[in-house]
Structures are given as C-alpha cells and as structure tokens.
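Glutamate 5-kinase: structure, please.
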Amino acid sequence: MNEREYMKEKKRIVVKLGTSTLTHEETGTLDLLKMEQLIRILTDLNNQGKEVVVVSSGAIGVGRKAMGIKERPKELSVRQACAAIGQAKLMMVYQKLFAEYSQLTAQVLMTKYTMLDDISRRNAENTFRELLQMGVIPIVNENDTVSTDEIEFGDNDTLSAIVAALIGADLLILMSDIDGLYTDDPHTNKDAKFIHVVEKITESLEHMGKDTNGSLGTGGMATKISAAKIAVNSGADMVISNGKDIYNIAKVVNGESVGTLFKAHKLEDFDLTDYIKTNR
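Here you go.
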C-alpha cells in the first residue's frame, strides 16, 4: 500500500505559492499559463468538497515589475509601495481566472499582530470559517504595505503554517523552487541526497536548512523547516514540492510520492500565540 494513500482523505488544505512558482524566471512577470492551470487545480479540489486556502507570494515582485524596478528595492517605503501596487494587480488576476470557473475567492491580508491580539485572531479565525463554509477560496498574504516587522523579516512559508494552525488544516503544501529537502544544497553538492519523509524534525535536520537567496522570494529551506515545526505541532502534515510542475499539488493530494513529507505529530499543549511571541 502506498504510504501516502491517506493524503486522499485530507479535507482542509493550505497551499503556499512562492514568487518563483507564479512568475517567469527570465522576466519576473506573472506566468499566466501556469496560473490558469493552478486555478483549475484549486477549483477542482474545492469541487471535490475539500476546503482550500491559498497563501500567495508575489505582490512586491509584481509591483516592482509594473514600476520598472529591476532589483528588489532596499528602501522599506519603496517595498511597501510596490506591495500596494502588486497586491491589487495580483488579486485582479486571481479574481479574473477564478471567475472563469465560477469560483468565488476573497482577499485576506494579515500581519503578525493579527495573531498576537486575541480579538483580531478570533476575528480572523471566524472569517476563515465563514468563507470556507461558503465554498470560497481565500487568498492570503502578509499586509506588507503597513507591516514593517513582516516586510523586513517575514516570509510566506511561516505565514502559511500559521494560517494552517489557525484554521485547523490537516495538510499544508509549500510550492517552492526545489523538489524538497536534501541533505545538502543540491545546486552546489551533487552528492546531496533527497529526503522523502521526515518523521521528526531534529536539530541535525534543522542544520541542513541552509538558506539560499533568490532575487524574488524571501524564504529559503530554513524557513520551510521552521514552518514545518508549526504545521506538524498543530496537527497538519506538510509537503514541500517543486512549483515548476503546478500539478504537483494534485499529485500530493492524490497520495503520490512527490516532494518531502513532514509527518504531523500534534502536540496537545501547542499554543500558536505563545509560539509566535517567543519567535518574534
């Protein structure tokens, strides 16, 4: 029996899409063909009765491309302006593509303080619950336009894990620019071995998560392992898969052995708010 057969039973799924997944590597512009395929996959999951939440990167990249800024800006105010421009353009594309399949979607912008404030956190949880009950697919992003902490240090790997824990998701899929977790950086070490399943996140495993810096994204493997700790402790399995093949989302949910699976081991005393406070 396929050890991932149980993935077919997952009901509440968070899918994180990195900038490299949504854009053309050569130009930094949105890959519309891939996004059309993505929307079909996500809508079909929803049609199967599964609840789907998307955490989408790309706002700053899309914004700076629209403004003709070639490199990721260093000035905070410029990044925030690019985020404001790019978020609107990104949501316009999402809305248009989802509308072709009569699928409703919604924008949810969050900051770290959304989770730290009891009232804001409950409001966010209630909003997600209502949207999912209505069959809507929420599109989540950090509110980079106003969130100075997040725009400087945040990443959507962590945000997606926090969303998964908040809504009680049973599966988190991180679509990245790499096949999964390796024993070393496969770009520089040809002897690096691929890790198919992680039963437990150990200290030695965390040392494998050496960050690699891209021109568009902000999260390296270290952030993905950090996200995995949040996800698995909250009771969600997590899979890192390569976003170059957008159909990997469907393959993961169908139980195929793609990417690296981090197995859930729910901690009864895991408190998401406390975790965020101690990792600020």
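Notes: The longest strand covers residues 12-17.
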